[in-house]
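Field reference: "sequence" (input) and "structure" (output). Example, Actin-like ATPase domain-containing protein:
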Amino acid sequence: MRILHAWKSLFLLFLSVIPTKVLGAVLAIDYGSDWIKASLMKPGVPFDVLLNKDSKRKIQSSVAWKNSERLFGGDAFNLASRFPSDSFSSVKLLQAAPFDSPAVSYYTTISASKIAETSRKTVALEQSDGTQWAVEELIAMQFAYIKNLAESVAGEKVYDVIVTVPPYYSQFERDAVADAIEISGLRTLALINDGTAVAVNYAMTRSFASPEHHIIYDAGASSIRATVVQFSADHKTSPPGTQIFVKGVAYDRTVGGTEFDRRLREILVQSFTTKHQRNIRNEKRAMAKLWREAGRVKAILSANTEAMLTVESLAFDIDFRTKVTRAQFETACEDLQGRFTQPIVQALDNAGLTLDNITSVIYTGGATRTPMIQAAVKALVGEDKIAMNVNADEAAVLGAALHGASLSRQFKTKNIQTFDISVHEVQASYQAPAASGSSKPRIITTGIFPAGSKAGTKKTLTFKRTEDFIINFNYKNEPAPGFPTHLLETEITGVAEALANLTERGAVDPVVKATVKLSESGFVSVTEAVAVGGIKEETLAGKIKGLFSGGSSSEIEPEETTTDPLRAQDTSSTSESSASASSSSSSAASSSSPTAEKKPTAKELSTIPLGINVRFPSIPPMSVEEKKASRSRLRAMDVEEAAKNRKEEARNTLEGYLYRLRDLLDEENRDTPFKQCSQPSERAALEEKMEETFAWLHDRGDIAETSQLLDKRTSLEVLERPIIHRYQEIEQFPQALNNSQMWNWNTRLFLTEAKRNLTAEEEADLPSKWTREELEALEKTLKEHESWLNIWVEKQKKVKPNEDPVIETTEMKARAKVLEQHLQKLYRRKVPKPKKTSTTASATASSESAPTSSPSSSEPEQSIPQQEIPEDQIPIQPHDGHDEL
Ligand SMILES: *[C@@H]1O[C@H](CO)[C@@H](O)[C@H](O)[C@H]1NC(C)=O
Ligand SMILES: *[C@@H]1O[C@H](CO)[C@@H](O)[C@H](O)[C@H]1NC(C)=O
Ligand SMILES: *[C@@H]1O[C@H](CO)[C@@H](O)[C@H](O)[C@H]1NC(C)=O
Ligand SMILES: *[C@@H]1O[C@H](CO)[C@@H](O)[C@H](O)[C@H]1NC(C)=O
C-alpha cells in the first residue's frame, strides 16, 4: 500500500512537470561515428527507423559543402574523394576532445579535415574557404537534418529527442551531445547508454520468468564495449513489466571499425607505394578515396577471403589495382586480437559474475560482422552462447525510442524499467576548515559516486562550515586519454548569513548540506544546498546535536537516496530526511519514496536555502550565448539555403514557361486552341517579350533576384492571359448555356403545373402553397432570364474565337442561379394544413430557402489551430543544473 501510495504521488509529480513540455512525437537518434540511425515515436506513425530521401535505413554521419551547397549522408561522405577539405566525417571521435588530446591526433591520421582550436580548448573543423565549425555545430547540423526528416514523416514539428551515447562517455562528452541537440533546435529528453538501449530493444519482445543475465557485446566504429545486464520480471505491475539492471560495463576505446579501416587503408597505401614507388600520403583526394575503399574492402572481407580493388586515376594519373586478403588484414590487426574480448572479461568482473551466469552474448554494432571478432568472442564464450537475435544496426535506436516514449509518458508502451550505472568514479574534494592555530589547510577528497554507481541517485554531503566554501568534483581517473579530470567547481554561498540566522533563532550546531545528483543521463550536479539547524528545544537539542556532529574525524557524511529511475524531480524531503545513513543503497528504486512522511524531528529542523555557483574549470560546456550564436549561425544558413532554393525554383519555372511559350508560338503548330484564340498582334507582342526574357535570363539569370524572376514571368502571363481566357470560355460556354436553358425549362414546367393546381384548388376552396402573385413574380423572372439569354447568345454567336467573348460564362451561371433560387423557394414550400390561412403558410415558407443560400452552410468550419512552439522559443539551458536530464 505504501509503495502504491508513493507511486501515485510520484505520478502526480510527473503530471505537474509535464505541462511545461508540449506533447508530441519523440525522436530517437543513434549517432555513431560512421552512421546515424533515427526512429520516430508518434501515435499513428508505424514504429520503425526513419528513412532518408533515398530510403536508406542508415545515414552516413557526414556533412559537406560543394561550392555553397550543403550535403548530408552518403552525398556528403562521397564528396570527400573530390573535395576532401570540405567533407566532414567521423566527427563523433572529436566530441569534447581537448585540442591536444590523443583523440585529436588520432583523428588527423584518418581524416584530411583541417582542425582548429576553439576558445573552449576543444576542436573546430575548417572548410576550404576558412569557415570554422565547432564539432558541436557540425553534429547539430546533422541532428537538424534528421529533425527535418522526422518532421516530414510526422507531419508536425518534432522537438523531443533521446540520443544514445557510449556508456563510457564522460560528462564532457555528454555535454557536447546535449549542446549539439540544443543548437539543432531539439530538446534533450534524455541520453541513454547504447548498451542499455539494446537491452530495452531485446526486452521489447521477450519476458523473463526467472532472472537472466546477458552480455550486450557492441563492436562499433569507435570502440568495443560489453554491458552485462540482468533481465527480470517486475510483478508489481500488471501485466508484469520487465526490469533491466545494468550490472557491469567495460570497453576499449582504441579498437573498432574505424581502426580496422585505418589499418586496411595502410595496407592499400603500402601496396601503392611498393607498386608505383610514389608517396601517396600527402594526396588528400587519393587518401580520401582509399578511406572509402578500405570500408568497402572490410565489408567484402567479412564474407570473402579476398577482395579485389580498382581505383581509376587514384593519383599521379595512375590506375590502382590491388588485391587484399583476409589473412593480410588479420595479420595487420594481430596486436588488437586480445582487445576484442577483454571488455567481456572485465564487464563480468565488474558485475561479479562469471560466464556460467550468462545466458547469451548479444551481438550488436557493425564490427560484429568482422570474422576475427566473431572468432575471438566464440573462443571465449563458446558458440552456443552467441546470439544474433537483435538487429545489429537498429537495436540501439529502436530501444532508445521505446525508452524515450516511456519517459515522455504519452504512449502506452510495454513497461520496461531500466537501472543503469555510471562507469567513472566521481570524487568530491574540498578544503578542510582551518583548524585552530595556523596549520596548513588540508584538502579532503572523498569518493561519492564510485564506478558502477546507479544512475538516478542523489547523495547528501554534510559540512560544518561558517563561511562560503568550494566543493570540487572530479573524476578519479582520466575518463579518456588526455581528458581532464576536473569536472565542476561548486561554490556554496550565503553560509555565514544563514548560520547566523539559525544561531540567532537558537539552533545548535547548524550544518550545511549539499545534495549531489548523478542523473539518469549520467550528469553530475549539485541540485541543492541548505543550511540546517535544529531550533533549540530542551528535549530535542541533544538528540539533534548527536545527529549532526557524529563522526567528526571525517567531516563528510554522504547519504544516499535512490530516486525514481526515470526522472524524479528533487524534493525537499531529501535534504530534510534524517541523516541515518542506514537507509542508503537500496537496490530497488521504488523502495525509497521521495515523499516519505516527515520524521517527528523535522518539525524542529529549520532549513535555509544557500546559493550554488557552478564553474567549469576544464572543458566547459557551451555557454547559453555560445549556443544561441551557433543556433543563429545554423539558422542563417538554413534561411540562405531556403532562399536559394526559392530562387532556383523561380528560375526553373520561368525557364520552363518560356519554353512552353516558344512551343505555343511555333509556326509549325497551326490550328491549336492557342493560335485560334489569339490575334497576330497579340502573338507578336508575346513573342517579342518572350525573346527579350530569354535574352535577359541568359545574361542575368545567375545574378537576378527571386523577385525579378517572378516579375518576368508575371509580365508574360499578363499577355497570355486574355488568350487563355478566350479558349477557356469557348470550352465552358456549351455547359453554361445548357445550365441556363435547363433552369428555364424546369421553371416553365413548374409554372404550368403549379398554375393548374392553383386553379383547381381555388375552385375546390382548398388552401394553396402559393399565391397567384408569387407565381406571376416567378414567371417574370423567367421571362427576363429567357430574353437576356436569347439576346446575348445571338450576339455571342457572331464573336470570333480570337475576340473576347461578349458574355462571360460566370455571368450566365450567376443569372441562372437567380432563377434557380427563385424557383427553389417556391418549390420547397410545404403543403399548408387545410385549416391554416395562406398567409401563415407563406410565412413558414419564407424561412425555408434553398439550403445553398442558408448562412450556416456557407460558414467555414472552425478548425482548432495546432499548438506549435515557434522554433526560436525552444529554451536554451545553461549547464548549471542537469537535474532535468
Ligand atoms: C553465478 O554462477 C555461480 C556458479 O555457477 C553461482 O554460484 C551464482 O549463484 C551465480 N550468480 C547469479 C547471480 O546467478
Ligand atoms: C531568518 O530566515 C527566515 C526565513 O529564511 C526569515 O524569515 C527571518 O527573518 C530570518 N531571521 C533573521 C534574524 O535573519
Ligand atoms: C446538357 O444537360 C443534359 C442534362 O444534364 C445532358 O444530358 C447533356 O449532355 C448536356 N449537354 C451539354 C452540351 O452539356
Ligand atoms: C400539383 O398537384 C399534384 C396532385 O396533388 C401534385 O402531385 C403535384 O406535385 C403538384 N404540383 C406542384 C408543382 O406542386
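The chain has 23 helices and 31 strands.
The chain has four domains: 2-255+340-419, 257-337, 426-588+601-622, 723-873.
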